[in-house]
Design goal:
The structure is a homodimer. By secondary structure, chain A is mainly α. Chain A has helices spanning 15-25, 31-40, 50-62, 85-96, 108-114, 121-156, 161-187, and strands spanning 66-70, 79-83, 103-107. Chain A binds a DNA duplex through helix 3.
DNA sequence: CCTAACATGTAAACTGTTACATGATTCC
DNA sequence: GGAATCATGTAACAGTTTACATGTTAGG
């Protein structure tokens, strides 16, 4: 259309852009769809917020990696996207690209445990139980809503990878539950005869 | 000194500020010390960058939660901090404060696995192995450098919590290694007779 | 002499969240 | 008629990283 169609060889896309690209390739069509899909699955290892999606879709389109068109539902405006061959190639290249894969956790609960020295024993116990409950709740969510969807991808589309990613997430939270059990036993005077049961030294 | 010493009842401190406060309380003295300590331990569940530390130390001091003074080593300038009673109280209040404890993971490796459908089977296998190797390396780091330090805190200062936090981190990475083993077996035609071994359908 | 470690600081850029605005449609 | 959901967008803010600047000291 314009005369400045030259792709300006942009900087590498941020990871959330590839999440969007991947979700579109898996059949999601609108920005809204993508957000729903991420909240249902990828959120457990890479959350993205709604406000990131629309600007990134625009950018993906500018770079020719997706093609969007208006497809309203009734009077309700709606824009749907398709991954272009260039987009698929960009996604594949990113997936294959080796290099550092930082495993980033940001968990204030563990920070609080780390410094729990400052708390009363009762508070610490409660905190460990909260951590346990949190992972159990996450597991329940995964079992109820995500597992069936992942199974569908495995069975219908012969794509086992969402299920495997979900499996990793569940494994992680099961490990936390196991850890919490051990920690709890240790805190509730679990050292039968071994340790001379620490007083509330608090200092 | 000035006439506007009134504390302006600031917004709640961001989590990294409490990490710094906690580290100072554990005996770290300078910003540099804090950074070293975080990189050695807390980084596995809550990393903070050097550029965050000095402005936050300044802010903590403004709010009366720490007290700093210059304590050069030779000609090399150096500012050391101590947690004030108000600071200890603020930390304790934050530790006890209930409420949402989001467990945030941002892991591009799992994102790549999730979308691995686009890759050749050989690439996927390699990727799972890389994830396994990553966790094994992290475990090795933890065993070599952090575990002894955590044990020291447990034995010398009767503070078992850093060790327990480290333990949680190790548990997590051990779970990933276990998951990777299973995933690898599944990918290398592991379905002996069970599954009719999926071809490289690639699409 | 040179490198690594000690030590502090900040500007600019980037990333991400919160909160709001806007409006249509579906379901009760 | 009202709430929930569908659907898109953005401005303002908060948080984070990268990169650099600056200088000292210890060790090979």
């Amino acid at each position: 259309v314009a005369d400045d169609e030259v792709i300006p060889a942009r900087a590498e896309l941020p990871p959330p852009a590839y999440v969007i690209l991947g979700m579109l390739r898996m059949g999601m069509r609108s920005g809204y769809d993508v957000k729903q899909a991420v909240d249902l699955s990828a959120r457990f290892f890479f959350a993205i917020s709604q406000a990131q999606i629309y600007p990134l879709l625009k950018r993906l389109e500018e770079e020719g990696l997706v093609e969007g068109r208006s497809e309203p539902r009734g009077q309700r405006r709606r824009r749907v996207y398709e991954v272009t061959p260039a987009g698929e190639e960009a996604l594949r290249a990113w997936l294959r690209q080796p290099g550092a894969l930082p495993f980033e956790i940001r968990d204030v609960a563990t920070v609080k445990l780390f410094f729990a020295d400052l708390l009363e024993p009762g508070d610490v116990l409660e905190h460990v139980r909260a951590m346990r409950a949190r992972s159990e709740q996450t597991l329940e969510e995964m079992r109820v809503t995500i597992r069936p969807a992942a199974a569908l991808y495995a069975d219908e589309f012969d794509n086992p990878f969402p299920q495997q990613a979900l499996d990793l997430g569940m494994t992680l939270h099961e490990a936390i539950v196991g850890w919490a059990d051990r920690a709890e036993r240790q805190l509730t005077g679990g050292g039968e005869g071994q340790e001379p049961e620490r007083d509330a030294d608090t200092q």
